[in-house]
Automatic annotation (TrEMBL):
The keyword NAD does not apply. It comes from the Eukaryota. Residues 615-658 form the SWIM-type domain. One of its GO terms (molecular function) is zinc ion binding. This is SWIM-type domain-containing protein. Residues 702-724 are annotated as: Disordered. It comes from Acer yangbiense.
Amino acid sequence: MTSVQLVLNLGGKWKSHHGQYWYEGRRAKAFDFPRDANYDLLLDKVYYVTGIDRDHYRVSMTTVAHTFRPSMPIEIVDDEDVALLLRRENVDPLVCISIEEIGNECPERNHKPPESSANPHHETREYEFHHTQKSNMQVTDIDEFQTSDVPNMGANLDDIRLVPPPCSFYSIHSGEVAPRPVTMRIEVSEVFPSKQQLQSQLGRYCLANQCQIRVFKSDTTRYQVRCIVEGCNWRMRAAKVQNSDHFQIRKFDNQHTCSTEARLSHQRQASARVIGEHIQEKLHDHRLYKPKEIINDMQREFGISCNYHKGYRARHIALEEVQGTPVESYSILPSYLYMLEQTNPGTITDFHTDSSDRFMYMFFCFKACIDGFLSSIRPVIAVDGTFLTGPHRGVLFVAVCMDGNEQIFPLAFGVGDSETNEAWEWFLSRLHKAVGEVDDLVIVSDRKNSIITGVEKVFPNSFHGACAIHLQRNMLGHYGKNKALKRYFERAARVYRESQFRQRMEQLANINSEAAQYVTDAGFDRWSRAYSPRKRYNIMSTNIAESMNNAIKGCKELPITGVIDYIRGVLQGWFHDRRTAALKLTTQLTTAADVAIGVKDDEARYMRVYPITFYTFVVKDGDLDGHVDLTTKSCSCREFDVDQLPCAHALACIRLRGFSFPDYCSLYYSSTFLVTAYSGEIHPVGQPSEWLVPSDIASKIVHPPVGRRPPGRPRKNRNPSFGEEVTQRRCTTCHRVGHNSHTCTYPKSSTMGSTCEIGEASGSHNVL
C-alpha cells in the first residue's frame, strides 16, 4: 500500500483579489496517508491530528485542483472526492479545513484544552507554512483567533490558529463590527524558511505585543535577541537547521520582568519594513492605501505613532513585496502578456524593445472589449495619454468609448516612453489590428500633432474630431478668461442646426474677433456638432478618456505588470457588475436612454403636430419648427439624425400615431445591446509560480527604459491643460490662498485686517 504526504492547512482565511480567491494560512500539519483511503478515514485522521473535539465541532474540508486555469476550491464530501485528492502525482495534496461549532453559541474564552496522546503509527510533522493556493471561490473573509479560544482541543494544536465558529464581535459604543486586536505568537521549535523571515515574524510579534528588543548575537548560524530593558528576563534564541537555510527557535523566555513603561518608551521595532510587511495584505486588492491611512491604522491597531515619511516608506516596501520591483516587473513582462492571452483567449497584446532590449512600448486589448465594441458600442473612440509616476515614468495610453447607458466602455491600453509621433503611431497601429476597419468611425482627441498624424496614417478612413473642451481652454488661455466667450463657444459646439451655429459664432465674434478666428482656423467640422461630417452623438470631448485615467489612477506608480493587472482588475469588476445590472433591466432601453426620452417627452407634450403624410409631419416649436420623417428617422433639427434618439419633435409625432418610442431608438441604446457589450469575461493570470510559459517566451529579455528619476516627491495629480482653471486652496482662518487652516502660520489677530489687505495677500484678481 503506497502512501502520500498530505498537507493540512489551518489557521488562515480565504482572501480575494478581483474575483480570484485563495486560502492563505500561517501554519500547517503534514502527515503520511494511504492512497487507497476513503472519506471516513480521512475525516477521522483530521480530527485525530488536530485534536478537535468532534462532539462539539464540525470540520469542513476543501482542496484546490491543480489545473491550467485557476480553479474553484472543491469541497471534500465523499469517497470520490478523496480519491481525486490522493490521485495527484508529483504534488503534496493540500487540504484546507475550517471548523464550525455544533450549536449557535460562541465558545467560552480561555478554556484550557485537554492533552492528547501521540499516534505511534503515523508520523506527524508540524512546520510554519507560507504557501498560498488561489481559487475563484467567493468565501466570506473570516477573522483569525487564538487556539486557546477553542475548548476541548488537543495539545498538539497549541500553536495553530483555527478558523473560528461564526460569532460577531461588536463595539459597545458604535454598534458596528469592531476590529479584533492583532496578535502574533512565537513558539519554541517553530521553524522559519530563512533568517530574514524569522526577523520579519519577530518584528510583527513586537508590534502586536508592544515590546522592544535588541540583538544580542547574530551571524549566519544563530540569532539571539533580548528585551531592550537591561536585566529583563525576556529573550529568544534561534539557530540554523543543519544542511538547510531554515532557522528554528531553540529557546524562548516570554516573560517580561521589566516595567511596561520602560519597554514602551521607544518604538524601534516599528520600522518601515516591519510596518510594510504587516500591511501587504491590504494592498492585494489594489487599494489606494495612503500613508495617512497607514499612520491611522498603526495607531488604531497597535497604539504606535509614526510620521508621514515612515508611512510612505512602509507603503513603498509593501508595494514592492506585492507587485515586485520595477526591474523584476519588466523582466516578466513577456511571460505576463503571454499568460494574459492564454487566460483570456482572443486578447491581443504586444510589446516593443530597442536594440539594447530596453522597453519602449506595450499594448493590450481584451477580447471582451473587442467583441463588445464591434457588436454593441457606438463607433466613437476617445484617445488620451496620462503620465505614469513610477520610477521609470512613461505615458499610459487609453482608448475608450461610451456605451448605451452613458458609461465608459474601455477598449485598449498601452504604455510608451512619451507622447511622440512614433509612440502614438505604434499604439494606434495595434488598436487598428485589434478592431480592424470600422464603418463611420470617429476618433476624438486633443489637437496634439502626434495623435493627428497617427490617426491619418493608421486610420485613413476614419474622421478625426477635436476635443471641444481642450480647444475652448486654449482659446481662453490665449484671449482671456471671459465667461461670455466661454458660454457662446460651448453653445456653438453643442447645437445641431447650422443656422444656430452661425448665430453663436456671430455672438462670439462680437465679443472677441481674434478668438472667433482662432476657433475658425481649427475647422468647424473638427469641433462642432453642426458641421461634423460623421455622427459624434454626444461625445464632443475626451472627458470619457480623462475619466478613465482618473478611475485607474491608482496604477500610475506601479511597475509595468502592476499597471496592467490593476487595469485588468478594474475591467473585470466593471464587466461583471454592469453585465449583472444589465440583465436585471426590465425596459427595452437602457436607464440613461429611458431618462433622456422622458425629459424630451415632457417637452413634446406641449408641441402641436401637423401631419403631411402618415409618417411625415411638421411640428410647431416656436421659431424652430421641426420637419419629421419617421421612415428615415430624421428631423430638420438634426438631433434625431445625429444622436439616433428621437428628438422632442419626433416624440410628439410618435405619440400622435401611438407608436412605441423604443422602436425609433438606435439599438445602441437597447438593454439587449448593453448585455451583449458586457457579455465577455476577463480573467486573472494567476500566480507566476503556476504559469506555464514556453521557453522562447520566458527567455525574452526586457530591461527597464533608460531614464533617471527626478528629485523630490513624484507628482500624483495630472498637469492642468493650457487655459484650464485650477482651484486654489484657501485658508478658512486667514482667508489667504496656498494653504489650509491646519497649516496656517498667521496669528488669528491678523485675520481682522482690512478687506484690501486680505485681497492683496491672497493675490486675487478680477475675472472678466
